[in-house]
Amino acid sequence: MDEQLWIDVDEYLVSLLSPPDPSLAAALADSAAADLPPISVAPNQGKLLELLAKVNGSRRILEVGTLGAYSTIWLARALPVDGTLITLELEEHHAQVAQINVDRAGFGAVVEIRVGPAARSLRDLISEGCEPFDFVFIDADKEGYSEYFTLALALSRVGTVIVADNVVRGGDVIDPKNPDERVQGIREFLELVAGEDRVDATAVQTVGAKGYDGFALLVVTR
Ligand code: SAH
Ligand code: DHB
Ligand code: MG
Question: How far is CA 108 from CA 8, 62, 105, in A?
Fold first, then answer.
């Protein structure tokens, strides 16, 4: 298949369905200028996150892996004015860029960026006894997905939607012997999901401006 065609189709779809948003464009430009890696979700994937969060009426969103807050801003668009989005990021530099991007997008009052290893931040949220989240987006280091999923379940209620990014990785996910720890992290996560009777799940392959990858979509059922 022709990767240029995937990119052209993404551009066509985005030009029709995602009118330019200055704060999202500025978030990408400033993330690149600050040397953050170009691994944020594609615009139509960001819009998918916004729509999924909207259809379940999300008021509380949790994100694991902020980078420059590009996906954060898409998700924040789904929230009511009194909503809450907590996003977890390991790197102080990423968090600083993200904070500026969030503020410029007008979401400074709803978004809280917590800096540190996500597993620790998630345990802190649990021990703080925080209210369950309606929507969770897992998109940090792939080696940590199983742990993030387990901790996210503890922060969920029946009906919580969990989306996990990058579960296909160019098709590498089907190779049980792939030496890449990120691939093994995704495989372990998918196997954990498959055996977890509190969730109903699927995974979908995607192609486009961000190459060949995919996402998992989970709903907490009990
Ligand atoms: N969700 C973003 C992209 C996230 S990229 C978007 O689509 O716009 C993955 C991010 O996870 C990076 O910023 C990386 O620094 C962060 N990360 C990596 N390991 C982490 C950890 N252990 N805890 C929290 N964040 C981590
Ligand atoms: C990588 C991480 C991501 O979250 C992504 O969407 C693409 C690539 C990576 O670590 O390579
Ligand atoms: Mg990702």
Answer: 34, 15, 8
Atom 4 of ligand 2: nearest residue by CA position: 139
pTM score: 0.98
**Ligand 1 pocket by Cβ (under 6 Å):** 39-41, 65-67, 70-71, 88-91, 94, 117-118, 139-141, 144
pLDDT digits (tens, 9 = 90+) for 24-80: 999 999 999 999 999 999 999 999 999 999 999 999 999 999 999 999 999 999 999
The total number of structural domains in the chain stands at 1
* Token reading at 96: 């600083």
SS3 87: strand
Q: What CATH number did the domain enclosing 106 receive?
A: 3.40.50.150
Tell me which residue range forms the domain holding 136.
3-220
| Pocket-forming residues, ligand 2, beta carbon under 6 Å | 39, 139, 165-166
Q: How far apart are the C-alpha atoms of 70 and 26, rounded to whole Å? A: 9
Q: Which residue positions in the chain have pLDDT lower than 50?
A: none
Residue nearest to atom 10 of ligand 2 (CA): 141
User: What whole-number distance in Å separates Cα of residue 66 and Cα of residue 86?
Assistant: 10
**What ligand has the least distance to the C-alpha of 65?**
1
